[in-house]
Amino acid sequence: GIQTTADVAAIIALNRTISPDSQDWAAFFVDSLTDFIVFHSYPQGSMDTYNADWFVATFAPEGIIHNQLKLTLLQNIIRKARYTPVSLRVLALNQLRLAIIARKGAYAVGRQEEAVITAQDMDYIAGIVELPLSDKENALQAAELAVLRHINDAVKEDGSHPDWLALMDTVRTLSARKITRMQSNSWLHLN
After folding, report:
1. Are 178 and 145 in contact (CB under 8 A)?
2. Cα(191)–Cα(187) distance, rounded to whole angstroms?
3. Distance from C-alpha of 181 to C-alpha of 94, rounded to nearest angstrom
4. Summary mean pLDDT of the chain
5. Is residue 185 predicted with pLDDT exceeding 90?
6. pLDDT in tens, 65-83
């Protein structure tokens, strides 16, 4: 397994030379990198912003994950870590948005061109945010709510998965509460 950051660099370099069709390599790549990043790097069991920034710089410097293996790695990290920074969850959600509006990125490959949210999309979202989404104020951060609203703006409600419609009802409720809270808690009042 991976023991050092030099091993990580070697695995990433080696990945550039191996056929994307190798299932054994894909499993090794995703599992060993997830294990090192989540369980052997500080803070163990979680991701911090430093590790999240490294992930983005290494695998999605322009905000787009072009390779399915790297998208699977991101999903696996989010699933296994006790905590992931909002930036990683936004990166993952944004892959769906990019697939819908621009047909860009690894998530776009194999996705139907319809501008609706499918059961496959809901499974993808459920791997990033805990569904069903509670209407507690801390259920999602403002950036996550914004990406979900942008996705909703790009899709048709008619034909979208029923769970998407329910999720968007909750997103609208949470967004309204956050705006109301920000307005009522402003520390600077100007008359």
Report:
1. yes
2. 13
3. 26
4. 91
5. no
6. 999 999 999 999 999 999 9
Written as one string, the DSSP assignment of the chain is: ---SHHHHHHHHHHHTTS-TT-HHHHHHHHHHHHIIIIIISSSTTS--HHHHHHHHHHH-TTS----HHHHHHHHHHHHH-S---HHHHHHHHHHHHHHHHH--SGGGTT--SSSS--HHHHHHHHTTS-SSPP-STTSS-HHHHHHHHHHHHHS-STTS-HHHHHHHHHHHHHHHHHHHHHHHT-S----
Residue 5 has pLDDT above 80, yes or no: yes
Residue 16 CB coordination number (10 Å): 6
pLDDT tens per residue, range 131-147: 887 777 677 899 999 99
pTM for the model: 0.90
Give φ, ψ of 165 to 5 degrees.
-60, -40
Which residues lie below 8 Å from residue 29, measured CB to CB, with a gap of 6+? 11, 15, 69, 73
